[in-house]
């Protein structure tokens, strides 16, 4: 197995999963990228067909899970419902306490397969609609949109959803992956490790920024208002959501791809409004923070992904849970690596001074 699950060059803006550049992965199915992260190499045709078939066979959720989804408060963000339900479903997994490689792989497949179903079932129930059962003939991305909307997405939207899951899938030791790995390092089960990841991804300084970007776009409303909004934020020393990164000191390579995707959606939908509003925000941030103040603050993965959700009519309440649906493969890859080490992660308190 290749050594690095992920490689980031934060100065050059390079991102690789298992030594493969993100730009060479983006046109693959999400299932192939998930396989790459977890198994360490790209699947051949036969391996991909088997892996996809296993994922598609595990998408359904049972009646007890639906009961818990119905009991969730319908005003909460889908991420909170997802966190609650992932914790609840572990009891139905016959492999919960089987820590063999095979047992962990079966749990991994179920988690990756069921997360979209849980999010979509919660979303529809919260909006007074009947849940839509998964369609095993559809890809991970197309099936998710189908379960949310009740109708099959057009090919471009299905493609964008797959690419979103790929771009969200992995990012080395980000905060949520670190949380998952710490949990796995105690040899706790995979569900617990994924719950840890979910809890950490939720915060607005991490995966929660995507929803904040959407709210910001709404608040700004049109390209003409963007400059004033950004200048006021800077004046008040407030952060602009979807910008800045602990590792990237240049454009986030995922941001570049998300920007191209949002441009494609804007053109196909003949509606440049959200794209132009986002670009006006970006131009002002770069002019004010990078060019005038020398701060290396560029759009991160959460900025233009928020823009594509506007075009796909995905509400902010779903944004972070969609991130989680993609990221779960990365969390699992890291947990498997950690299980092999059989070593607890226990930093000393002084190391936090660096954070
Ligand atoms: C999937 C992800 O997790 S991607 C990140 C998603 N999060 C966001 O988009 C939230 C907004 N961004 C941020 O809060 C930060 O840039 C982080 C958390 C992503 C990275 O944080 P750090 O590397 O610790 O940078 P830190 O917060 O210390 O900022 C360094 C400087 O840049 C400024 N800065 C950083 N991000 C921003 C921003 N988005 N807007 C304005 N200023 C910013 C800070 O105010 C600080 O300025 P100072 O030196 O004058 O005090
Ligand atoms: O790497 C990080 O710190 C945050 C990030 O971009 C991610 O988790 O995708």
For the structure shown, list the relevant keywords:
single chain; 355 residues; mainly alpha; Citrate Synthase, domain 1; Cytochrome p450-Terp, domain 2; 2 domains; 3-stranded antiparallel sheet; 62% helix; binds acetyl coenzyme *A; binds oxaloacetate ion
Brief description of this entry?
With 355 residues, the chain is mostly helical.
User: Structural class per helix/strand content?
Assistant: mainly alpha
Which stretches of 5+ consecutive residues score pLDDT under 50?
Answer: none
* CATH-level-4 superfamily name of the largest domain: Citrate Synthase, domain 1
Please report which band the strand proportion falls in: under 5%, 5-15%, 15-25%, 25-35%, 35-45% or over 45%. Answer: under 5%
Work out the count of structural domains.
2
> Which strands sit side by side, in order, in the main sheet?
1-2-3
CATH class of the largest domain: Mainly Alpha
Order of helices and strands: EEEHHHHHHHHHHHHHHHH
- Morphology: globular
**Strand element count:** 3
Give the cofactors and ligands. Answer: acetyl coenzyme *A, oxaloacetate ion
State the helix count. Answer: 16
CATH architecture of the largest domain: Orthogonal Bundle
Spatial separation of the terminal alpha carbons: 31 Å
- What number is the mean pLDDT? 97
Largest sheet: 3 strands, antiparallel
